[in-house]
Structures are given as structure tokens and as C-alpha cells.
Amino acid sequence: VSEVDELQHALAAEHAAVYVLGVLGGRAAHLPAPVLRAAIGTAYDVHRGRRDRLTTMLTSAGAEPVPAEPAYALTHHLASPEQVATVALHVERRCLTTYGALVAASTGASRRWAVQSLIETASSELVFGGAPEPLPGMRTELPGS
Amino acid sequence: VLSGAGLLATFAGVGLTAGCRFDPQRPGTVQASATPYPDASVLAAAQAELTTLINRLSASTGSAGLVACHRAQLAALGGPVPAAARRARALTSAAIVVRERRAVVRFTRWADTCVDGDLARVLASIAAGIRMQPTLQAAP
To answer: Is the pTM of the predicted complex or chain greater than 0.80?
Structure first.
């Protein structure tokens, strides 16, 4: 798998993350969970920044960045802070996995950025109820996905 | 199984972390026997770093979680996991934080610069895994 392929996968994951976190932010605004609301807002900004960075990296590589889907299906109920946090955790885990693959496929500045993104995304999991693990991003399947 | 440049990172499915093992010396790998592994020194340094941490932390109270974490990481790198702690001086809580942070920096640098992408992924994951541990999350 080429570096450009993994950049495209990461961008697709970030498109989905930005969309889903936007929805989660809207839901959290109506829930009595100010800490969660702030965490989702922070995550939204981070993922939007990464989406834009990935778009730039792909354009610089001469590739056409994969576009966002018109919408993304959200199959989970979002009636409680716990349910919102669970979906946010899934978003982070999906991105974490794609950054692991990007680390493996990239070199130089792209590798360094992917490594940093992987490390930061792993820490972000903790904000949404994720548990510390020795090797984040190395699993090939996500529970409940 | 993920493969790249004749090197393998295997996901055996035993568990979340126990089944993940990086094995550059896997028998039957043609390229591994034909040319020296380009990241042999990085791999050895990474294994040594984790071995040292395991030995020092094993003598320190309240570090069982970190020891288990590093043992899983060392196993993922294909290193021989110490069966029992060697005699070592215990570390203070502050010293543990310093050493763990230093390890994050080292694993990040190795992930940035090593040749083999599969090894880079494992090294980056180890850096992230250390950063996730409560010891560093709770540190000022």
C-alpha cells in the first residue's frame, strides 16, 4: 500500500470524524455534560485541522484528495452523555487505526506527522472513556463496529 | 499478517496486545536471510529500553500496571521478556515519570527515523501506549 493510499484512507476517516463530531457536538449541547461538550469541541477542531492538513499533503503529492461523503450513518442512540462519548471514542479509534497504517506506509515529514497524530489520538481516547492500552492502534478490529 | 520488506508484524488474535508481535527474524523469510535487517540497532535499542524499564519498575512499588504494559510492548517487539525482575534499585514516583517521558521521546524518534514501516508502526504505538498510562496522564 502506498503512502498516498494511506493518506487517502486517513483523509476519509477524518472526513467522517469531522461530520460525526459535528453531530455529537449538537447532541451534547442539549445534554447536562459541559466537560463532554468541551471535549467534543476540542476534538472537532483537532480533526478539522488534520483533515485540512491531509488535503494539503495529498494535493502536494499530486493526488486528488478523496471527497467527503454527503452524510454518514449514525446507528447509535445519542440520548445520554455516555452514548455520545462512546461514539466519540469510536471516531478516535478509527482514526488511530488509520494513522497506524499511515505510519507504516510513509517516510520523512509525513511519517513524523503521522506518528504525532497517532500519539495524540491515543491520548484523546482517554477523554472519551477509552482505557489505557500498551499498543494502541495495533488491533485490526474495533469492538462493536 | 502484515508484511513489508520481508518483515512481519503478526496479529495472532489471542488478545488485544498479547497477540501483536513484531518478528524480523521470522524463519522462511527470504529477504531477512539475504540482507542484514536495516533497523537491527533500533530494534535492539528499543528492546533494551523496555527491558531496563521493566527491571527498574519491578523493584518499585505501585508500578505493576506499567510493568505489565512494558512486558506486552517488549513481547510485541519480539524481545525476550524477563521472567523475573533482576535486583535493581527502586525508582521514586518522580523518577518513574522522568524515565517514562524519556522513553516516549526515544520511541517517537525511533518511529520517525527507522527504515522499516512495520517496525515504525509498532514503535509509534509503544510511544502512544506509554503516554496513555495513568502514571503520565496524572503527572503535572
So the answer is: yes
